[in-house]
Write a structure and sequence with these properties.
It is a peripheral membrane protein. By secondary structure, the chain is of the alpha+beta class. It is built from 34 helices and 15 strands. It is globular and about 105 Å long.
Length: 849
Amino acid sequence: MVELVASNVFSEKQIGYITLGVYLNGNYDLVTMFIEHFRKEIRNQENEPGQCLAIAAAANIGGREIAEALSGPILQALINPKNSDFVKKTACLALCRLYRETPSVIQLEPTFIEGLNQLLFSMNYGVQLSAASLILILLQRYSDKMALVLPTALMQLGKIFFDGTVSPDYLYGRNPAPWLILKYMRILQYKTNWDESETDRITRILDNCLQKTDVSLAAKEVHSNLILLFEAINFIIARQFSNQLMQRSASILGGFLNAKLSNVRYLALESLTRLVQANPSIIPSLDQHRQTLYLALRDPDNSIRRRTLSLLFAVCTKESAEEIVHELLNYLRFADITMREPLCLKIAVMAEQFAEDPAWFVDVVLQLITMAGDECSDGVWHRVIQVVSNVQSLQRYATMTSFGSMCANNPHDRLIALTAQLVGEYIQITDIRPEEVIQELIAKYKIASDISKGIIITALAKIGAKYPPGKQTVLEFIQTLTSSTNIDIQQRAIEYITILNAPPQVMQAVFKPIPPFENKKSSLLRKVMLEQAEEGLEEEDEEDKNEEDPSKFVTQLPTKAAPAAPAAAPAPEPKNNADAMDLLGLGSPAPAPAQPKPVAKPTDFGLGAPATPQNAVTDLLSAAPVTNVPAPLNDKEAIKKHFLANDQGLCFEDANIAVNLSIQVNHPNAILSFNIQNKTGGILTNVGVHIPPVPFLAVQSKPGATQINRGEMTVFQFALRVRQPFIDPPSYTLRYTWSEQSHNEVLDLPFNIFKFTAPFNMDYNNFFARWGQLTSPAQQATASFNPVGDPTNQMKQVMTSVFKVPVLPLQVPPGNVCGAGIINAEGGVLGILCRFFIENGKCNVQIKG
């Protein structure tokens, strides 16, 4: 390979570079010997083919060492005006690949930004497309610094549409350069401020795209038109540009619901769902399509059925809830197994949220349990118990109705559990004879599961305590269970016999009624939001992934897999310790573990400047003990510090509104709730919170009210799931209108990757065996600081409250604290090992992964 790469014959050099790209990756020590040769080739402007081959090979091999050594020469090749268009295209795509692996390789100097901006003026559309791909990646992290390119993107987009300067070679389906238009549209989603002329220009462009609705043309023209149409709609949704354009988009998408092409129907359903979530005011205009949606539930394509269900859930209101729930219950009778559980969840949430009479919610849940059985999750009947405990007028009806359903033939186990729980609590307010209830529960005990048996025993004990004539029957039955092989049943039976034979005041003290549950956000709603976020991940089209990842244009490499790699294979749940141990490489020591993707330093996670790790960690320690204290008014650093160790608090406030953020983590997902309060004496309009799409997080939104009356508040919620590790969190846009004046704030979300860390238990041998294997600089980060007060206590606070890693009970010397955690990303489980220790009078923190 060395001789081939150094050859002066192009065919031999080409084979040599291709071989390098196929057989090597950044984990091989052999890469070091080629770096200097790559650098010379990249700087040699006299040999353009060799220059391009070296740039492409560097991107294909990848790795931190390649990125740090060669990103500078590749950047110079990109902005050097003497280089050809082909070299610039290759350099752009190579930087896309290297940046995704090692974001620190690109430093956004003004000269580099200006050079990128100039590339958008190139007459070569291939150069424009490559530059737009790189710009789109950089905007996701540096939207403020890259503001220079946004007017250029708009200008070039206008030229493509209206100047007629595009060569016929770039026409596809009668549309000029549709893929370049797509890139410019996505770039302009990051533009927040629009003057009147810019608004007119983009409105004309969007109007042009929204006219491309004819799906009866040739396949090439249809595909080209749909690229522009749906990207325009995506832009309108992301920027919520105008209500008129949103209404028009809804009308177009509604017409596509009857399209013959299943792909078009799928895109229409998915886009309509996001459109409704962004602007609920368009829901009335979709009422005419409800019958079409009911028919779409019977579509042979499972993905269309799921998207239809999501759209029906999004468009449901108080006025339409009864009709939609009725149709979904009818569909549930013959729905396939994959649809039944999400159907039950969404039906239950709609029945609870939009029920004018709480009794209707109970009736719906009983139908769900009867029809769906095992596919109706326990959370549904748990929610009934919570609602009934809080609504006194509902307790009698719910108890009698559920008991009547249970007495029917072959009741499902969940119905038995629900009924037993209700009659045990509220039998005294019903007309049911206690003897009848006792006999029914004893009869159903034989067919109940172990969990339901425990609930039945408790219910019988409570009935026996409330109804003395039936006490003896209950005692005789429970006595037969004292020799049960199930330890839980046996223990319950013995304890309840003792309690039932105790004085009345003891029974009253033990069998107190369950108190009302806290009126918190429904756990069913939270589960639906998380499932929708996961659904978006699972059904993401591979072509869309390639569009979001321009580095896919550079040939992908086979990675060298080692058995001890921390994330060698995905694991579905963190609770599976056996799988996670394998993923962390703890099964057995490996002689030569492969290096994983580079791990960012702790100071890169918003804890301070990378150049001063000691100050960063000291700041971190000072932030760790803070609890339940609101951050100072709009002090970004103070807000960031506050949310390092806290999951709720004030994140923005001005004279008109106050925004409180709450973060709820349910590994590997998180829900962000923005609670917006109106502080003015009037009405706030056009209220909204928007998180733009980013490659490292999947985001599913549930918008709140766009209008807030005086003294009231609204809540905007977002379900997040980690796709890949990240350093800087995304930004979000907060907007509202007061006194005919629009307010827009672009802020950073105050959380980091450690919010998604799940605890992981390890013993001494496994911890230090794995610790000893992680020796590469790319797998670890360290920092030191001067101790303040009790350093051991501070170290424990930082580990548990900031890194979200529990302190492991290991037998380690004094002044040492160890912890382990895992992050479930889309690509697999990422292992984290933490160690705090005191050495030479200083506190040290070391993270490996």
